Amino acid sequence: MPSAIPQPAFVLVRPQMGQNIGAAARAMWNFGLDRMRLVAPRDGWPNPDATAMSAGAGRLLDEAQVAASVAEAVADCTYVLATTARPRGLTKPVLSPERAMAEARDRIARGEKVAVLFGPERAGLENADIAQANAIISVPVNPDFASLNLAQCVLLTAYEWRRQTVDVVAEDMAMGGSEWANVKELDALAKHYEERLDTAGFFFPEAKAEGMKINLRNLWSRMPMTRADVQMLHGILRQMVRWKERGD
Hints:
The protein is α/β, with parallel strands linked by helices. Helix content is 47%, strand content 11%. Strands 3-2-1-6-4-7-5 form a seven-stranded parallel sheet.
């Protein structure tokens, strides 16, 4: 059964290769989408090549709705978006993927049913297909090489849907099992280095010693260090001292 999460239907119009259908299913499921519809797949349906390529997203293929025409595939929808990379000479709103998925999100939240059309691999959607859509999704690709693979276009659109419907953390820090070092630990590290460097005669001349120590402490406080980092730096200094003592 499809998930209960409200979402648009992705409609693959006259897809030519089973592998691309499977790759599109995988791309959809990567971002939590599982409403796939197929319009007149060239090699018939079901297609074993699609299953082999879906890599764990086979459920989408099993539950995919198959229609003979675009009109049939989107008959229950109130808002339809068509993906295309080429100007078509049609008067129609043209949206970026981000704006299109925001519109889809808002309409679905109001109870509407939304579909997104993706054209066949060779030439994309025909004007007759696009004429049935309410708006166009245009990806800002290189104009000298505008053709996107079917699964790539599905992936890009699904990604934008995900961005519009979940809280995406723009930046995070993976701590690797450690925690940030606190002020007490950084102070102990600073004292350890000051003591050893003082013994080694590093703080010279004496008139500049205090300023050098302040700069060193500023270095430690400026660095975002974990407890593991602090322990490693303590260990490095201890080993260097032991090595020097053995050398004597």
